Amino acid sequence: MTIDPEEPRELLVRRMTWEADGVLSVELAHPDGKPLAPWTPGSHLDLHVGGQIRQYSLCGDPADATRYRVAVLNEPSSRGGSRHVHTKLRPGQNVTVLGPRNHFALEPAASYVFIAGGIGITPILAQARQAERDGIPYRLIHGGRSRASMAFGGELGALRGGEVSFVPQDEQGHIDLAAALADLPADALVYCCGPAPLLDAVEAVCPAGQLRIERFAAPVVERDGDDTSFEVEFRASGTTVTVGAGTSILDAAESAGVSTQSSCRDGICGTCETRVLAGVPDHRDFLLSDAEKETAGTMMICVSRCSSDRLVLDL
Ligand SMILES: Cc1cc2nc3c(=O)[nH]c(=O)nc-3n(C[C@H](O)[C@H](O)[C@H](O)COP(=O)(O)OP(=O)(O)OC[C@H]3O[C@@H](n4cnc5c(N)ncnc54)[C@H](O)[C@@H]3O)c2cc1C
To answer: Is 78's C-beta closer than 6 angstroms to any atom of ligand 1?
Structure first.
C-alpha cells in the first residue's frame, strides 16, 4: 500500500544518538516494519512534538526505506518542540509525523558548493551524499561555534567524492564566503542552510540565480504601508470570508471552520501551501522562488495576502 505523505501517521522512535553538543538524532521506523514513504535530499518531516508541529530535515539514506533519520538541536528558549525531543522523547515511543516534503530539492548542476552553518548541516549532508552518488563534483563547508557542537563530522569526513572542510568559529572565525565563492562557475549551484546571519552573508556575495537556501526560522521583514482587507472564497468548502487587515488567510479559514494544515505560521515550512484557483496572490513566504511565485499556482496562506480584490482557493 502506498503511504500518503500528506496524511499524519505514527512512527516508532527506534534509536536516539548524541551527534554533537546539544544535537540528538532520532531514527524513526514504521511500527509494523513496513516501508516508509520515499524522500529526496532536502526533504523534511513535520513532527508533532511537545504540543507543537516542527520541521526536521531528513539526514539519513534515502535508499533505506526502513528508517528515517532527523537530528534536532536543543533550542534553549524552546516553546516545546526541540525541548520535548531532548527531554521527553525516547526510543520505544511513537511520534506523529507528516511528510516528507521537499522545498530544498537538489537541482541538476555541473557542480555544487554546499555551505552549512550549525544544525543547517542536516539537509546539506543528504544533498552532498546525493552529489557523491551522482558523481557530481562538490565542495562542502561546514561552520559551527566549535568542533564539539558540529554534528556528523565523521560522516562528512568519510565522503570521498568532494572537498569537505570544517570551520569551527572558536578556532578559525567565520567561513570566508568570498573565498568559498570566488571563481564560482556559471553552471554551479550553491546550497546553503544555517542561521540567518550566514544566509544573509551568502546572499550578499552569491549571484541570486545560483543560490538555493533553506531557512529554519523566518527573518524579520519591515513592510512599507498598511495591509488592506480582501475577500477569499474557499471553493471546496463553499465558504467566502473577508480577510481583514490585521489577520491572515489561515486565521480567517480556521475561524470559518475551513479544514487547513499549518505549522510555522511564518512562511518558512510550507505546510499550509494551498492551490490558487483565481486571483493574484501577494506572496510573502520565504520558500517559493521568484519564478515559482509567477508560475507555481500555490501560496502559503499563513503569511501571503492578495494583490487583487478577491482570491479563490482550493480549500
Ligand atoms: C524546513 C525546516 C527544516 C528544519 N530542519 C531542522 C533540523 O534538521 N534540525 C533542527 O534542529 N531544526 C530544524 N528546523 C527548525 C525546527 O523546526 C524548530 O523551529 C526548532 O527545533 C525550534 O523549535 P522549538 O519548538 O524548540 O523552539 P521555538 O519555541 O519555536 O523557539 C524557536 C525560537 O523562537 C523564539 N521564541 C520563543 N518563544 C517565542 C514566542 N512566544 N514567539 C516568538 N518567538 C519565540 C526563541 O527565541 C527561539 O530562538 C527546521 C525548520 C524548517 C522550517
So the answer is: yes
What pLDDT does 2 receive?
Answer: 52
Summarize pLDDT for 54-107 with one digit per residue, the tens. Answer: 999 999 999 999 999 999 999 988 888 999 999 999 999 999 999 999 999 999
Ligand 1: does its nearest atom lie under 6 Å from the Cβ of 113? Answer: no
Single out the residue of 101, 93, 116 nearest to residue 41, CA to CA.
101
Q: What is the domain extent for residue 199? A: 111-214
Q: Which of 102, 127, 146 marks a domain boundary?
A: 102
Q: How many domains does the chain have?
A: 3
For CA atoms 211, 217, 220, 223, the dihedral sign is positive
**Are 210 and 118 part of one and the same domain?**
yes
3-state secondary structure of 228: coil
Q: Compute, in angstroms, the gap from residue 226 CA to the centroid of ligand 1.
A: 28
Question: With a 6 A CB cut-off, is 11 part of the ligand 1 pocket?
Answer: no
Q: Which of 76, 102, 128 is the last residue of a domain?
A: 102
Residues 206 and 270 in one domain: no
The DSSP result for 109-146, as a single string, is: -SEEEEEEEGGGHHHHHHHHHHHHHHT--EEEEEEESS
CB of 118 shorter than 6 A to ligand 1: no
AA letter at 162? G
The reply to whether 176 falls in a domain is yes
pTM: 0.91
Q: Is residue 222 part of a domain?
A: no
Report the candidate in 6, 5, 2 with the shortest Cα–Cα distance to residue 261. Answer: 6
